[in-house]
C-alpha cells in the first residue's frame, strides 16, 4: 500500500475558527495508508512547505493530501512543493476545507465533521493517484494583435521591439482607433494626434510588424503555441502596391457620404481615407456608396488615377495563418444615446455626445476647430454637460462607471472656455471621479480658472423651444430644481463594449461579463491574461479605460506574449483525456461530443489469433484537449479516462464519503 | 365579441364630449365593441390612495365581468380608468394576488383578458386604408400638440407607450392629416387633482403645459384623458391670467378629431360643449376640393 501524508492547514483563523484542525489530523492519522498527519498554521508559507518536504523524506511518502483553501488558490504551490522533494506533482491532492467548509459554516462541530469527510475523500483519491507527465507543444514564434487602437499599437510595438514578428490587424482601413478622433488629451492638453501619429508611423515602419488593415478575424482554431487564424481581408478596390496616396481620386469622386470619423457632421467621399494622417494613407472604396460599383456608371477615380491602381473587380481574400499567441485589443464603442428619450434620444440636433464635441473642437474636424452647433452653425454661449449618460445607470443596464467621462468633460469645458471666452459651461454630475495622476488638479483648474459651473444632480429632461434648449434638472446640494436655457448640450456618453464583442469572444474562446467586456483571468493578479492559454487582453475591450491605462495594459500584454514567444516549446497540461484503446469500441460518441475537436477516429492494426486485423479507435490530440471530461462521461465502454480524475479515483472518493 | 367597452364615470360627466365622440366614432367604424354590463367604478384616484387591495379588486371585477360576458379585450377610453384596470390585469398575473382578488370580488379571474386604451386600439387595430377610407375632412394644416399626460405611460408595467416621448397619438393625428408639433411636454403633469387641493400649484402646472404647446406653434391640444382636458380646458382662463398672455388653445379629445375628420356633425361629437371655443378652428380648416 502507498504511504500517504496528510497536512491540515489552519489558514490563520480562517479555517481553524470553524474546524478543529487537530481532530482532522488525528482522524487522518488513523486511516489506512496514512503514515503521517500534521497540522500547521500556514501550509502555503515557506516554513509550511519545508515542513511538507521534510515529512516526505522522513516518512518516505508516496503522495500527500493538503486540506486547506481552494485548489484554485494554491494547488500549483503544493504541486511544485512535491516536485522539489522528488515526488511527481500529481501525487498531491488539495482538499478545500476553507471556501467549501469553514467560510460557509458557523458551527464548529459540524464544520469539523464535514472537514473530516472531505479529508477522507482526498486520502481515498490520492491512494489511487498515478504519476502524470505533461507532453510538450511547439511554439510558433509570431504574435497576432487584434485591434490597432492605442492599446494594440503599443502591444505590437513592444512585441516587435522584443524581436518577434507581429501582425497588427484592424477592421478599419486606418490604424489609430478612437484616439485618432480625440482632439486633446487630459490632463496635459497635448494634442492627441500629435502623440498618436508618430506611434502609428513607427509601428507601420517597424521591420517586425506586418499591418493588416481592413481585415477581420473569421475563425480561430488550434491552441496556445499554434493558433490557426482565418482572416478575411476585405476588398479595398485599390491596389495598395500601385497606389501612391496622391489623393487625386478622392478629390474627383462625385459621391459624398457622411463621414463616420467626423461623427457624421461632415462629408467624406466614396473613395476615401478616414482622416489626413491615416496609416496606411491609401484610400479604399466604400462599395455600397460607390456609383460605379452600384450602377456601373462613373469610374472617374479609375480614369484619373495616374498609377492605374483602381481595381473594381477586387474581391475579399480569406487567408489562414498560424500564430503562437494573440493579444486582443478591440476597444470600445460610445454608448448610443437614443436610449435616453428624456434627453431627446438623439433627435434634437444640438444635443450631442462627447465624441461629437471632440470633432467640433479639432482643427482638422468638420468645422476646422470652430465651435458651431450642428442645427444652425451658431456659436453656442450656454453649454450644458450631462455626465453619466450610459454609465452608473441600472435602468439602462449600465451599472458601471465609464471612468473617462469626468476627465473628458473637464477637459472639454476648459477647451471651450479657451475658444469661446464669453461662453459658460454648466456641468451636471453625480460624483466627480478624478483618480489618476494630476487629474484632480486639472479638475480644480476647470472649476477655478476656467469658470466651469458644476451642479450636483441629474437632468430630468431636455426639450427644444425655438432655437434654445431647456434643460431641467435638480441641484441636489441646494435641494431645488434648476432650469438652464442652453445653446448646446453635450452628453458625456459612456463606454460600451463593441457591438460584436461577444461574437469575437466566442470565436476566440475567451470569457466576457454580463455587459460584454472581456474577462481577465484574475481581477487583481492576472489583469491582462484570459482563461485561455496564449490569449491576452489590452485596453478598453476589458473594461472602460483612458489612454494611459490602455497603453500600460498594451505593454503588459506584450510582455506576457513575448515571454511565451521566447520559448521553443511549452509544457502542456497532463490532466487530459486518455483513451484505453483495448477497451475502445470505436463508436465515435466522444468525437462528436468533444467541444475542442481534439478527438479523431483512427484505424489501429491488431494481431488477433495470429491474423492482422484493423479496427477504429479514438485518438486524442494532447495539444487540443482541455481536460473538460465530456468524453469520459459519454464513453459507453469506459475507455476514456481523465488523467488525475479517473473513474477509479472518483469512485474511491464516493466510497470514502459513503462508508463513514 | 372582441372588445368590452368600459366607459367609466367621466364620460357621462366632466368628459361628456369624450363619451359622445367615442360612441360616435366606434359606431361609425362599425367596431366589434359593446358596453360591459353592470360595470362598476374603477377606483381611480381615491382607492389606490386608500387601500392597495381595494385599488386592484374594484377594477378586477370589471375584468371578471368582461370575461363572463365573452369579451377578449377591455377597451378603456379614460386614461385614469385604463391605468387602474391595467394595474388589476398586471396584478392578476401573480397567482397569489389573483386568489386574493377573487376572494374579495367573489368572481373568477382567468388572467387571460387584456385591458387596452381606446387610443391604442384606434391606432393599432384599425389599419391605414380602413381609416383613410373614412376621412371626409382631413385635418390639413392643423398643428396639434399631442398631450398624453401621465396615466397612459407610467409606470412602465402598465404603459401603453414610451414614457418620455410617446408617439401613438402623433401617428393617429398624422393619419388624419394633421401636423403634430415636436414639443417637450407630452407627459408632464397637468396639475391633476392639485387644482382642487392646491390651486396655486395646480394651475401653474396647467399653465406650463399650455405655454409650451403654444410656444411649439400648436393651434390646439389633443388628449386621451378627461382629467387633463378638464384642467387644460376649464382652467385655461385662470392659466392665461397666471401667464399674463392669452392662449386660445382648444383642447380636443382624439376621438373628437377623428369624428370631425370622418365628417360627423360637430354637435354629435360634443364639440359645442367646450370651455375654450372649439368649433371655429375646425371650421376654418380648408375644405377638400371634392368628396
Automatic annotation (TrEMBL), chain A:
Top-level taxon of origin: Bacteria
PROSITE patterns: 4FE4S_FER_1 (PS00198), 4FE4S_FER_2 (PS51379)
One Pfam match: Fer4_7
Cofactor(s) named in the record: FAD
Swiss-Prot/TrEMBL keywords: 4Fe-4S, FAD, Flavoprotein, Iron, Iron-sulfur, Metal-binding, Oxidoreductase
Signal peptide limits: none
GO molecular function, one term: metal ion binding
Residues covered by the 4Fe-4S ferredoxin-type domain: 234-264, 281-315, 575-604, 616-645
The keyword Lyase is assigned to this record: no
Statement: the UniProt record of this protein carries the keyword Flavoprotein: yes
Similarity comment: family membership: Belongs to the HdrA family.
Name the UniProt record assigns to this protein: Heterodisulfide reductase subunit A
Source species: Heliophilum fasciatum
TrEMBL record, chain B:
Domain named Cysteine-rich: residues: 4-85, 144-233
MF terms (GO), sorted A to Z: oxidoreductase activity
Oxidoreductase found in the keyword field: yes
Pfam families attached to this UniProt entry: CCG (PF02754)
Keywords: Oxidoreductase
Top-level taxon of the source organism: Bacteria
Alphabetical list of PANTHER family matching this protein: COB--COM HETERODISULFIDE REDUCTASE SUBUNIT B 1 (PTHR42947)
Stated name of the protein: Heterodisulfide reductase subunit B
Amino acid at each position: 500500500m502507498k504511504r500517504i501524508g496528510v497536512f491540515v492547514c489552519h489558514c490563520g483563523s480562517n479555517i481553524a475558527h470553524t474546524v478543529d484542525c487537530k481532530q482532522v489530523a488525528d482522524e487522518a492519522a488513523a486511516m489506512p495508508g496514512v503514515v503521517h498527519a500534521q497540522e500547521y498554521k500556514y501550509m502555503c508559507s515557506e516554513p509550511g512547505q519545508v515542513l511538507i518536504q521534510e515529512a516526505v523524506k522522513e516518512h518516505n511518502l508516496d503522495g500527500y493530501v493538503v486540506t486547506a483553501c481552494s485548489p484554485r488558490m494554491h494547488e500549483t504551490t503544493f504541486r511544485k512543493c512535491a516536485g522539489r522533494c522528488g515526488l511527481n506533482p500529481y501525487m498531491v491532492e488539495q482538499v478545500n476545507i476553507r471556501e467549501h467548509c469553514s467560510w460557509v459554516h458557523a458551527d464548529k462541530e459540524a464544520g469539523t465533521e464535514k472537514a473530516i469527510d472531505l479529508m477522507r475523500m482526498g486520502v481515498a483519491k490520492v491512494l489511487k493517484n498515478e504519476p502524470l507527465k505533461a507532453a510538450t507543444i511547439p511554439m510558433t514564434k509570431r504574435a497576432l494583435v487584434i485591434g490597432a487602437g492605442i492599446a494594440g499599437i503599443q502591444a505590437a510595438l513592444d512585441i516587435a521591439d522584443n524581436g518577434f514578428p507581429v501582425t497588427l490587424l484592424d477592421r478599419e482601413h486606418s490604424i489609430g482607433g478612437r484616439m485618432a478622433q480625440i482632439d486633446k488629451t487630459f490632463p496635459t492638453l497635448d494634442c492627441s494626434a500629435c502623440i498618436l501619429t508618430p506611434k502609428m508611423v513607427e509601428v507601420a515602419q517597424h521591420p517586425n510588424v506586418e499591418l493588416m488593415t481592413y481585415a477581420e478575424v473569421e475563425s480561430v482554431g488550434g491552441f496556445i503555441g499554434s493558433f490557426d487564424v482565418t482572416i478575411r481581408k476585405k476588398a479595398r478596390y485599390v491596389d495598395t502596391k500601385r497606389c501612391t496616396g496622391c489623393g487625386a481620386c478622392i478629390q474627383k469622386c462625385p459621391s459624398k457620404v457622411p463621414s463616420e470619423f467626423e461623427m457624421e457632421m461632415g462629408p467624406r467621399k466614396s473613395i476615401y481615407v478616414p482622416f489626413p494622417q491615416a496609416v496606411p494613407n491609401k484610400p479604399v472604396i466604400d462599395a455600397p456608396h460607390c456609383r460605379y460599383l452600384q450602377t456601373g456608371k462613373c469610374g472617374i477615380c479609375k480614369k484619373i488615377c495616374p498609377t492605374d491602381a483602381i481595381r473594381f473587380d477586387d474581391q475579399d481574400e480569406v487567408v489562414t495563418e498560424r500564430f503562437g499567441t494573440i493579444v486582443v485589443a478591440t476597444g470600445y464603442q460610445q454608448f448610443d444615446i437614443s436610449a435616453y428619450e428624456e434627453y431627446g434620444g438623439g433627435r434634437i440636433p444640438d444635443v450631442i455626445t462627447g465624441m461629437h464635441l471632440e470633432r467640433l473642437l479639432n482643427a482638422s474636424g468638420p468645422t476646422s476647430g470652430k465651435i458651431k452647433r450642428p442645427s444652425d452653425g451658431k456659436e453656442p454661449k450656454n453649454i450644458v454637460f450631462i455626465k453619466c449618460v450610459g454609465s452608473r445607470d441600472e435602468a439602462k443596464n449600465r451599472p458601471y462607471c465609464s471612468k473617462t467621462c469626468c476627465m473628458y468633460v473637464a477637459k472639454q469645458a476648459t477647451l471651450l472656455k479657451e475658444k469661446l471666452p464669453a461662453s459658460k459651461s454648466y456641468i451636471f454630475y453625480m460624483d466627480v471621479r478624478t483618480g489618476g495622476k494630476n487629474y484632480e488638479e486639472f479638475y480644480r483648474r476647470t472649476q477655478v480658472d476656467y469658470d466651469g459651473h458644476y451642479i450636483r444632480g441629474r437632468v430630468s429632461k431636455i426639450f427644444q423651444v425655438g432655437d434654445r434648449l431647456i434643460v431641467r434638472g435638480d441641484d441636489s446640494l441646494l435641494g431645488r430644481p434648476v432650469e438652464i436655457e442652453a445653446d448646446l448640450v453635450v452628453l458625456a456618453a459612456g463606454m460600451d463594449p463593441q457591438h460584436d464583442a461577444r461574437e469575437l469572444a466566442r470565436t476566440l474562446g475567451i470569457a466576457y461579463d454580463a455587459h460584454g467586456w472581456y474577462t481577465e483571468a484574475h481581477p487583481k493578479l492576472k489583469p491582462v491574461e484570459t482563461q485561455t492559454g496564449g490569449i491576452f487582453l489590452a485596453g478598453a475591450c476589458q473594461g472602460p479605460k483612458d489612454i494611459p491605462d490602455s497603453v500600460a495594459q498594451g505593454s503588459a500584454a506584450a510582455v506576457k506574449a513575448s515571454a511565451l514567444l521566447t520559448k521553443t516549446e511549452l509544457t502542456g497540461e497532463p490532466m487530459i483525456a486518455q483513451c484505453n484503446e483495448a477497451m475502445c469500441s470505436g463508436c465515435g460518441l466522444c468525437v462528436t461530443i468533444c467541444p475542442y475537436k481534439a478527438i479523431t477516429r483512427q484505424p489501429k492494426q491488431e494481431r488477433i489469433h495470429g491474423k492482422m486485423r484493423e479496427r477504429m479507435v479514438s485518438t486524442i490530440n494532447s495539444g487540443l484537449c482541455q481536460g473538460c471530461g465530456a468524453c469520459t462521461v459519454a464513453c459507453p465502454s469506459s475507455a476514456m479516462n481523465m488523467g488525475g480524475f479517473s473513474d477509479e479515483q472518483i469512485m474511491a472518493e464516493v466510497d470514502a464519503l459513503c462508508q463513514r | 365579441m372582441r372588445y368590452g367597452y368600459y366607459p367609466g364615470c367621466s364620460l357621462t360627466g366632466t368628459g361628456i364630449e369624450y363619451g359622445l365622440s367615442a360612441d360616435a366614432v366606434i359606431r361609425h367604424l362599425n367596431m366589434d365593441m359593446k358596453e360591459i354590463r353592470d360595470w362598476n367604478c374603477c377606483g381611480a384616484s381615491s382607492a389606490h390612495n386608500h387601500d392597495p387591495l381595494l385599488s386592484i379588486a374594484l377594477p378586477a371585477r370589471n375584468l371578471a365581468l368582461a370575461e363572463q360576458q365573452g369579451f377578449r379585450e377591455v377597451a378603456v377610453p379614460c386614461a385614469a380608468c385604463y391605468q387602474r384596470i391595467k394595474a388589476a390585469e398586471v396584478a392578476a398575473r401573480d397567482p397569489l394576488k389573483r386568489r386574493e382578488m377573487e376572494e374579495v370580488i367573489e368572481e373568477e379571474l382567468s388572467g387571460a383578458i387584456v385591458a387596452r386604451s381606446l387610443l391604442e386600439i384606434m391606432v393599432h387595430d384599425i389599419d391605414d386604408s380602413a381609416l383613410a377610407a373614412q376621412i371626409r375632412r382631413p385635418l390639413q394644416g392643423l398643428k396639434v400638440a399631442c398631450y398624453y399626460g401621465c396615466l397612459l405611460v407610467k409606470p412602465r408595467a402598465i404603459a401603453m407607450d414610451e414614457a418620455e416621448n410617446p408617439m401613438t397619438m402623433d401617428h393617429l393625428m398624422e393619419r388624419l392629416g394633421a401636423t403634430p408639433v415636436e414639443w417637450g411636454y407630452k407627459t408632464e403633469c397637468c396639475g391633476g387633482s392639485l387644482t382642487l387641493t392646491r390651486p396655486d400649484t395646480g394651475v401653474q402646472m396647467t399653465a406650463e403645459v399650455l405655454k409650451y404647446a403654444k410656444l411649439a406653434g400648436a393651434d390646439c391640444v389633443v388628449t386621451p384623458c378627461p382629467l387633463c382636458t378638464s384642467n387644460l380646458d376649464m382652467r385655461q382662463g385662470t392659466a392665461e391670467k397666471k401667464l399674463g398672455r392669452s392662449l386660445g388653445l382648444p383642447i380636443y379629445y382624439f376621438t373628437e378629431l377623428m369624428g370631425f375628420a370622418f365628417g360627423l356633425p360637430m354637435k354629435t361629437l360634443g364639440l359645442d360643449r367646450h370651455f375654450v371655443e372649439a368649433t371655429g378652428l375646425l371650421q376654418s380648416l380648408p375644405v377638400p376640393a371634392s368628396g
